[in-house]
Amino acid sequence: MHIHLFRNARRWDSCLLPIDDTTFGLILQFKVHLVRVEPTTRFFRPDTHATGNGILHDTYGTFHLDAWDNRDWEEYKRRFVEVVQRHWSDRFILDPNKDWYTPRSGSTRNSATIQCGLSIQLVETAAQAHQTYRIIHPREDGFRSYVEEANRSGLFTHQDLESHWNNRRTRVGTAIHSVDFLQTTINHEFGHTLGLDHVNGVGNSDSHYGVTLEQRENQMGMGGLLTGRHAQPWIRQMRFHAIPRTHYDTTVQFRGRVASPQLIEYWDNDWQPATTAS
């Protein structure tokens, strides 16, 4: 296998670096431009526009924009990096299906694992950036933040760095329960930046965010639970760093797993303890 250490691309850069003879680190590196949207800001997107009169028009409604305080804006930028990196970096390990890496210290292959990292660098202009996100400060609740993956852009609110509860009727076994799910919007939307679809595929209907408890608690559903599926961006990126040289190399595959335990971030309002026979 031929190893490429660095790759530069439009959506993100990446590097694959050896940690020791049996471990690599694969880091997805994002340069992000955060745009401070004020009431006087003018911009036009296919479903959203602002003409500089303090009102934002969107598919889901009309929103009045408040001005950003300088201190609040600097805090938002700092926390954006902190929140996204804390949630997505060092959360997955890629396991190979067979030995694939030959270290310089030896002559035989081994099954080196890949630790999946993510880093964000804030930049000052869109020309420098992989991703450009506009950040609004709407007076009203209910704005639906979104990512336009093809355009490497997104539109978020000042509230999207905080975790919020959402209640949904959810299938639990054969019953329908009222369940509250805790999710941080920015982490869900950054999943789209990574190329991940909703848990039930492309679309924004309620069912695309899940039907069962297992689906709804997923990060790409209504909750914050990460699974091995969410390691797909790193798995896909490996094809740019581990270049096959032989037929054997072409049969090497990687599978993602979550690296550490996670909190349960939902509350089943209709849960009942199991009854025992007396």
UniProtKB/TrEMBL annotation:
GO molecular function terms attached to this record: metallopeptidase activity
InterPro entries xrefs: MetalloPept_cat_dom_sf
Superkingdom, natural source: Bacteria
Protein name: Uncharacterized protein
Organism: Dyadobacter pollutisoli
